[in-house]
Amino acid sequence: MFWLPASAICQNLEKRERAGNMEFSSVITGRESIRKYDGRKPSGEQMEHILEAGRWAPTAYNKQPQRVFVLESEEALAKMDQVHPCRYNAKVVLMVCGDSAAAASYEGNSTAVIDATIAATHMLLAAYNEGVDSVWAGIHQPEETRKVFQLPESMIPVCFIDLGFRSADTKENLTHSKRNPLSAMVTRL
Fold first, then answer.
1. What is the mean pLDDT of residues 19-46?
2. Angle (CA) 74 131 62, round 5°
3. H-helix or E-strand containing 155?
4. Inter-residue contact 57 to 94 (CB < 8 Å)
5. Domain ranges of the chain
């Protein structure tokens, strides 16, 4: 069986080290959003693996319009704090964007946001596989974000991804393993 029960994943979280090559089902079911970081940064090697996952994400017609800005300077992190409240003491944040000038377009609709979202998802899963905690923070003020970071008009900010390591006093996410039944999501035609 490919998928492991959520209860089995939760029971083993503290017993295993989360670095290296996990089973894919463990990565998907074990990854959770962490909203309190201890201030440590991922290593250079961990960052490289996370960013490579975003580079290898599939995109429409392989146009690869995803753009990732690594926010790690005090100045860049302060800019993020100006436009979004969800940094949670992370010292490294990815700002994931889609470049509409580089994206595929179908009937006048750019794939930039979709492609950037796929890349972001790949990086979230890669972070967990590398033993790095993360949280997705959707950008709800793209115009303001574009202005603060002085991005070109074609750049569409999609999300921030906080990266780091959970604080020792991070509370357990009691809703993480609660999922609707597959039948609530899937309709077979």
1. 90
2. 80
3. strand 155-164
4. no
5. 43-167
Distance of CA 177 to the CA centre of its chain: 18
Q: In which element (H, E) is residue 137 found?
A: strand 133-138
- Dihedrals phi, psi of 146, to nearest 5 degrees: -60, -40
**CA-to-CA distance for 72 and 92, rounded, in angstroms?**
5
Considering the segment(s) 43-167 as one domain, its CATH architecture is 3-Layer(aba) Sandwich (3.40)
Confidence of residue 188 (pLDDT cuts 50, 70, 90): very high
The answer on pLDDT for 4 being more than 90 is no
pLDDT (tens digit per residue) in 153-184? 999 999 999 999 999 999 888 888 899 999 99
pTM of this structure: 0.87
Give residue 13's Cα distance to chain centre.
20
